[in-house]
Amino acid sequence: MEVIEMPWNEQNYPPSMKNLKKVVRKKAIEIANALKEKNYDDKRAISIAMEQAEKWYQHRSDLKDDTPFKKNLRRHS
Question: Is-above-0.85 flag for pTM?
Answer without folding.
Answer: no
